[in-house]
Amino acid sequence: MSFPWAQQYKPATEFGQWMDDRLPIGRMIYNSLGAGYPTPRNLNYMWNFGSLAGVFLVVQIVTGIILAMHYAANADIAFDSVEHIMRDVNSGWMIRYAHANGASFFFIAIYLHIGRGLYYGSYKAPREMIWLLGVVIYLLAMATAFMGYVLPWGQMSFWGAKVITGLFEAIPLVGKPIQELLLGGFAPDNAALNRFFSLHYLLPFVIAGVIIMHIWALHIPGSNNPTGVNVKGPQDTVPFHPFYTAKDGWFLGLALIFFTWMMFFMPNALGHADNYIPANPLSTPAHIVPEWYFWPWYAILRAFTFDFLFVPAKLLGVLAMFSAILVWFFLPWLDKSPVRSGDYRPRFKKFFWFGLIPCIVVLGICGGAPAEEPYVMLSQLASAYYFAHFLIILPLLSRIEKPEPLPNSITEAVTGKPLEQAS
Amino acid sequence: MVRFFGILIGLFFAGMLIYSFGRGAVEYISNPPVKAVEYQFHEGPKDVSFASDGPFGKFDKQQLQRGFQVYKEVCAACHGIRLVAFRNLAELGYNEDEVKAIAANWPIETPAIDPDTGEPSTRPSIPADKFPKPFANDVAAGAANNNAIPPDLSLITKARNGGAPYVYSLLTGYTDPPAELPEANRPGTGLHYNAYFANLNIAMAPPITGDGQVTYSDGTEATVSQMSEDVSAFLIWTAEPSLIKQKQTGWAVIAFLLIATILGFLSYKTIWADVKAEKKKKDA
After folding, report:
1. Which residue, A120, A277, B113, B177, is the most exposed by fewest CB within 10 angstroms?
2. Do B78 and B146 fall within a single domain?
3. Structural domain contains residue B211
4. Does B9 contact chain A (CB < 8 Å)?
5. Rounded to an integer, what distance in angstroms lies between the CA atom of residue B68 and that of residue B234?
6. Which of A124, A153, A241, A260 is the best residue to mutate to test the B interface, defined by the most B CB atoms within 10 Å of its own CB?
């Protein structure tokens, strides 16, 4: 791994040398996050969201562990135990609001991170494994976030759990048993709450494990970059530390300002008022909606309104919703264009900015809106484009598109001088 | 192979969706959806502001005490605030003796067990107790209120879209039904027309009926609007007792982060200066 010109780790102290001979933990950090990791010099700010998502995962784990010290996973008292945290635990409101808003910020970071990968072709060879592991992280994060939202046991927790586990019911034959297995009963109750709590505590550590593999896989070819051109020489790179630690560092400060603003001044803006009403199986909320980061998928789910032969519309919606994410697993083989960066793909660029991005925004708006017209029709059009984009447009585009000429090297793209003569 | 099957699946999903869209569009044009009556007559919360609004908001303790008085004299007979303890009233500016007196004299006693017989009984509240619920359980609450259970108000300003302005609007929003309201949407027996309530007909009779319903000790004139505003402010506090502390902490945190971020940005600029200089040469 790494490039031959990478700086070599030299222990600064005798103790450091002693450790390096026995457990080279300093060497590992140096080679993965320190000066020993050469990184393309031209990364733009879209490359900041991976480390940012990592920081928000840590925020979630730390605040989550503290919340678990005060929370009671029991359907009778879960709601009140959350209010106990808000009212009686010292600074409990801060921990809880950090956790509730931290989930949203984790998803903001992860969506921008995925979007960057989509535009700059970070999923293409030789980085397929990084991409696949990333999709796994995203799926795990969705499961974790969903189960976390159930824990306060408010109205939206309860009905969200009912609707989402109800999706499995649509699967023929095994659907009903799967749903009962997920819930530990016929409807969300104490058994469901307990297993969701257990898994909500477990999965973040699984995510952390997959992230380690994600970064491990990243360090084999090294980071992609806005030109998509391979690193060719020492002048193309800068050591990760101090260059990207400084860049990630100040940008983290900026992100935390937005985060703390939400957390202290509008902590419930991204939540639902209904979740401050204790769960009541006898009273269905007027509009059951998931958290904002699920809205696009929720819109795809609800876009199917007609049966296909013997396949009911609900099953089609469930299949489409899962396919919409699973299609990302095949993306490296659907888009065979040898050019990575969207900057050098004139048609791809148009489909990305004027097709995919508006389509996701429309799906998001429709997913958060009540299931009535015109939102249903809009989500049908947007969902159709979504599938067409990944499954039809990208495979065909890579055949017919004529990419623009690529720079010979990163250094040439940045300084305008050929790699060898640049100083 | 992946691409071949991908295109087939893509064509299927996209085809189904376009077909559904077409059917939906035909239906939409030939048979346009009728707006529900609730939508036509329902109104959004009135424009009312509170001292605690905004990043620099502060509780007006005098107002919270007035609001507590309205709650006690008007609302408490039916609506509990089960998540609030008497001791929390100290935050409204009551001293220890006043809190003790309020707890001891609260019209509903705290459920307890008779120490001699072990039978369920009640005892006067102490500051450590939460406000006792006005009804023993939901069945009792329903039976006494024409089957409409009065919701607990502890979290009401966070549990309703529109928050405190919604509560204020609801309290001041009782009117006679408009003449053009269809018969089916007119309030039935035991219901009252209120344009701010989701389905227009609310079981709660107008609670704040006229000026001077309570007598404020601080000399504030107890108009219907004033009482509604005061009790809404009080319910902001019950829903989020730490609201002001949150905002103050927020400013301290953001001030710290601003300084840290500026320093971080300057060190970033310094570290990258040489690398960026090469790029500048190109631009020039």
Report:
1. B113
2. yes
3. yes
4. yes
5. 6
6. A260
For residue B284, the number of C-alpha atoms closer than 13 Å in the C-beta half-sphere is 6
Q: Place A291 in a pLDDT band, splitting at 50, 70 and 90.
A: very high
Report residue A339 as tokens: 């050019």
Size of interface A-B (CB pairs under 8 A): 173
Q: What average pLDDT does range A29-38 have in this prediction?
A: 92
User: pLDDT of A248-288, one tens digit each?
Assistant: 999 999 999 999 999 999 999 999 999 999 999 999 998 89
Same domain, B199 and B262: no
Tell me the shortest Cα–Cα distance from B4 to chain A, in angstroms: 9
**Same domain? B175 vs B258:** no
Residues B261-283 have pLDDT tens digits of 999 999 999 999 988 887 766 66
Residues B45 and B142 occupy one common structural domain:
yes
Q: Is A247 a catalytic residue?
A: yes
Residue B20 lies in a domain: no
Question: How far apart (Å, rounded) are the C-alpha atoms in residues A289 and A368?
Answer: 6
**Full residue range of the structural domain in which residue B253 is found:** 243-284
Structure tokens at A342: 């969207």
A265 to B21: CB separation less than 8 angstroms, yes or no:
no
How close A219 gets to chain B, by Cα (Å)?
23
- The CA distance from A93 to the nearest CA of chain B, in Å, is 8
* Residue A83 is among the residues annotated as catalytic for this protein: no
pTM (whole model) above 0.90: yes
pLDDT of B284 reads 57
Residue type, A40: P
Tell which of A80, A91, A245, A265 to mutate to test the B interface (max B CBs under 10 Å). Answer: A265
- A176, A219, A232, A349: the catalytic one is A219
Q: Does a structural domain hold residue B168?
A: yes
* DSSP-assigned letters across all residues of B109-162: PEEEE-TTT--EEEE---TTSBPPPSSSSHHHHHHHTTT-PPPP-TTHHHHSTT
Q: Please tell me if residue B256 touches chain A, with a CB cutoff of 8 Å.
A: no
CATH number at residue B158: 1.10.760.10
Q: How many domains does chain B have?
A: 2
Phi first, then psi: what are they for A119, rounded to 5°? -75, -45
Domains of chain A plus CATH, in order, are 43-225+240-270+277-284 (1.20.810.10), 289-402 (1.10.287)
pLDDT band for position A345 (cuts 50, 70, 90): very high
If asked whether residues B254 and B208 sit together in one domain, one would say no
